[in-house]
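Dear colleague,

Following up on Tuesday's group meeting, I ran the structure prediction for the two-component complex that the binding team flagged. I've pasted the input sequences exactly as they went in, so you can double-check that nothing got truncated or mislabelled along the way. The structure tokens for the whole assembly follow below. Feel free to forward this to whoever is handling the docking comparison.

Inputs:
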Amino acid sequence: MDAFITAAGLVLHFDVLWVIVASAAFGMFVGAMPGLTATMATALLVPVTFFMDPVPALGAIVTATAMAIFAGDIPAALLRIPGTPASAAYADESYAMSKKGELDLNLGVNLVFSVFGGMVGVALLILCAPVLAEAAINFSSFEYFWLALLGLTCAIFMTTGDPLKGVTSLIFGLLINCVGIDPAAGFPRFTFGSVELLQGISFIPAMIGMFALSELLRGAVSVDERNVVLAQKIGNIFHGVWAVLKKYWFNFLRGSALGVFIGALPGAGADIAAWISFAISKRFSKTPEKFGTGHIEGIVDATSANNSALAAAWIPALVFGIPGDSITAIVIGVLYMKGMNPGPTVFLQNPQFIYAVFIIFVLANLLMFPLGWAAIKSAKQILRVPRNILLPIILLFCLVGSYAMTNSFYGVLIMLVLGIIGWLMEENGFPIAPAILGLVLGEMLEQNFMTSMIKADGNALMFFERPIAGVLGAVTVVIWGFMLWRGFMGRKATLAPTEPDPTGA
Amino acid sequence: MRANDAINGLVLILLAVAMIAITSSFPAFPGQPYGPSLFPRVLGTLLIICGALLIWRGMAARRAGAGWVEMAAWTRQPWRIVSFFLMLGSLLLYILVGDTIGFIPIAMVILLALFLWFGVRPLVAVITAVAATFVIHWFFATMLRVPLPRGLLDSIL
């Protein structure tokens, strides 16, 4: 309880609240702009949060992403272009509703159920995280090695249409992470005598490059595309939402629960949650034929699911230090830089930070009501911001942001090189998220791998001897076996030219 | 630019082989069989396997009639290619001469060039470039105390 009061004191501070409101507005804007994703909002925020204390830094990221995931629904309804990939699952449905004249109801339902879904996710985060942390306190290097490997496996297995390219991307991320001083013996690897490479590939410039610069490059070649906004007036968005809640309360609960489950799985985040819950909603609907004609049912499921997944992704991130999605991967990188190694020990040593995250999540979801309403009301102005002015300014922001991380041009160079690599990867169907996960988890994976190897002295069976390690190891091996088996059975399907994954983070 | 998977695989294998070759110069510690070269070697081997699978898949796609390299539709319009390289060139310019010229002038030049190229009206472009540069400079240099390069303005500021 003491920790809770300390946490409340940390959050309910003028500076922190100011940061939260400002990042909320920023998140709304980025989420509502087609082509700028929630991950990109995080990537742009991180250089700024670098200079803050841990609590406002986490507050900024939590709030901005929660807002961005909701705000992605707005252009989906108005333009048929999802503002973030998490809204892609039901963009067509939303747009069909708008064309039927139900734009107000659609936006109202999206806002209300985003808030409620987010609340369910936060509630489960608050309930589950401390319990899991207690169990995780006894883990040794074997458990952590398997956990990290399992997390990475799930990332490949869940998020990519093409597991082979997912694996390749992951290994590439892990290899980049090998540059610099090695964590076990302290030997400088792949530095080619450069002093700057000794510190390794700095995580934040790398991430800005892969998530933001590659996005800007794609934007630059289509800068003349105009958004055609529906010429409908936005009226009272809350009219009729209560009736939807009464009719589809079960969809809301199912969507939120599914969102929590998928979000908590390492590697899968809000976008996958939305796709799966939308599909399940259609599968079990009494009126599946109405889907695709502007039917609210699936939207209730999916819009609840993506917001609840966002909060639930923090469960593995806080408890094990294993990211639930690409946003929490960035968060974990930030936590490491702040000297707070995520994992069960944080719950013992710094419980006030954990409680502070919980409080911020609740605040962010409450704040979503007024700010979401304001964003919807001003949606047409937001969507009219010209891209040809926005893109160069974001480019300059990326440039300064990565410079600020190393206080030298080295950061900008990393951003430039990895931005080009990230762009090439996306063009060739290699998902970026696994590479970032590899970059974040690489050091932990290698450290636990080396410690375990030295302890086991080459005896592979040691990796399975402790009971939890055995279970985790077995699960990982089974998943890999299944993937290989499926790879051999489904080889013919992969011969067809592969399309970029529609659900890619 | 979408290359055939065989090309992607080959590039990855070359990268992995180079990395493994470099690891052979890493020191071993007496009495300790697991040194700094172990992890990169494991990863390199895995990358070679992935690369081989990609080559195999790429060759199959090639036999099915896919090309070696496919360019996206936008590459047929030269001005879009210029847009693409202008973004990269701006960053490179900053890395190369940022220290001597300084953040403020170079940021203004980059913004102005990009705005004008992207078809922003000249007056709007000039005003926005100046305003955005000063806001970002104020935010990072004054608020967050990032030592942005002063360059030419060193004597004035």
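DSSP finds 25 helices and two strands in chain A.

Cheers,
M.
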